[in-house]
Structure formats: structure tokens, C-alpha cells
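Entry 14. Ran structure prediction on the chain below.
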Amino acid sequence: MRPLDLTGQKFGLLSVVERAGRKGSQALWRCMCDCGAECIKTLGNLRSGHTKSCGCLRSVVTTEAKTKHSMYGTPAYVSWSSMLTRCNKPTNRKYPDYGGRGITVHAAWHDFSAFFADMGERPPGTTLGREDNDGNYEPGNCSWETGTQQGRNKRNTKLFEFEGVAATITEHCERLGLNPSTIKSRVYTYGFSIEKALTQPNRN
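Output, C-alpha cells:
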């Protein structure tokens, strides 16, 4: 049987460099963490998702949680903490939709100060969103978004193109001054094309 080779594979913040012997029945692997530190991890911990970093991730989260700086507990801090948890903690209920499908956090953003320097304070009524829903949490792909913007960016949100604009039915109706219920009924109940649904006059 061909020996297992994890060289070059990525597990959380860890990139496998080479095999590093055994520990009992477990194969050991030398890894390079995104923070720049080297560490030795077992095959079991890497594959199970139990190990995500050299220990820096846990250290950062623990240190930040205990820090009494003026940003602790602010909206931006809460969003930062939630972002890390859903991307790096398999037991989090949202992990399957984030870390579980490969969404990662920019290495520098594991430090709240770096995250805040890029994103700033969270405006009222917004949450942390990604422009590319399949992209990572990183500069250039993240912004503070309203609930409407977040809803539009969900993977299951249906967009319709009309007059060169790709938008939801509700957004088209807001732009054109139409009743969303009427247009949705035309599309989903009667099978109208989006163009016909948006342009056909009401009978009355």
C-alpha cells in the first residue's frame, strides 16, 4: 500500500511540510502555521479538525477575550469573534456553512487590532458580510452590510436579470415602483418570464 502523503495539504492555518516520524500508532507531521511558527501534529488531530493552528489561534482568542481594552464587547468585536468561531470551531452550529466548506479568515485578522484597522467600527443595523459568498474573510471581500444586502448574497438567493440589472424580485419592484406580491405571483404561480412579469400592466 502506498504510504499516505499529506505534504502540501492545508488544515486550518497549518500547511503540512513533511513527515516527522511516529508517536505510538500515530504518524507525525511537521507543519508551518500561517503565523510563521513550526509545529508537529498527529495525523489524527489534523484530519479530525481538532487542530487548526500551532496554538496561536486559541491563544489569540483567549487573550482577546480577557483583554480589557476599550473595544471589548463592541459591535465590531462581536462580529470579529463570531467570524473566527464559525470558521475555525467545528462544534459551532454555523461551521458547516463556513469553515466546513473551506471559508477561512485572513491570517492577519486573527488579531482583532488588524481586523479593526481594515474594517473600522460596525455601523448600526449592519453585520459582517462578504461580496463573494464563496470567498474568504479578507480585505477587499468584506464590508459592513445591511440585512437586505446580506440576504441578497446568500447562496440560495435567486437573482433575475432585467434591463441589464441582476437583482431579486423585491429589488426590481422597489426600483420600478411595483408590488412585489403581484410580481412574485406572476413568476412563481403563473410561470411568467421576469420581463413579462415586470412589464405587463395590471388588468384593473
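Residues 69-153 form one domain. Will compare against last week's run tomorrow.
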